[in-house]
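Hi team,

Below is the intake form for DegT/DnrJ/EryC1/StrS family aminotransferase from Streptomyces stramineus. Please confirm the fields before the structure is written into the shared record.

FORM ID: S-0412
PROTEIN: DegT/DnrJ/EryC1/StrS family aminotransferase
ORGANISM: Streptomyces stramineus
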Amino acid sequence: MLTAAGIGAGDEVIVPSYATADAAEAVRRAGARPVFADIDPWSLCLDAASVAATVSLRTAAVLPVHLFGRRADLPALRAVADKRGLLVIEYEPLESAHEGTRRRQEAAAYLNARLTGLLTPAVTPGTEHTYRSYVVRVPGNGRPDRDAFARALRARRVRCHVPVQTPVHRTPAFRRELWLAETERAADQCLALPVDAGTPERELHRIVSACNALGGLLKVPA
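The structure came back. Fields below:
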């Protein structure tokens, strides 16, 4: 899509660093240079204000990535792009609705209402979250607390994983000397809990019991 849009050598394309490297690699394959902007702390997708601050004379496009079943704020990103004559190309279109989406949303609602000590996924009015991954934040002292929490959950036989281990701009292939505060914070705090369309309620109850038994530095109201 980038090549078809005429993007190539000498162009820059703004991508998120809090994601897989796929978008940055696609930009590089087109002959352009990926440039990293920060994320919105709630959606974990590209932040329009950071994109606006990152635009240069070489910027040709913005490549938002929909993450974990949550959409990037396309209207805000397009407003920034339109002012500067840039393209907005969705790299990873949101999955289409299917039977599993409703069940995942119900499971997420169950957890959102019962988990304490964690920051659960936020959904703003007028937006949808399909919860391809159920990603929470473990507040506290960043990565040490998050990793300790994950180890404690695994000891209680609750599967969990860090959804983005290393932001793309800190990987050897795309290393940049820049500080993306929200990206770094998300990489240090986020943890994906085992929620999918087939998770029974008794398993959700076990996840809640295990998480809440560990306490937490923050009490999150239901």
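SUMMARY LINE: The radius of gyration is 18 Å.

Thanks, M.
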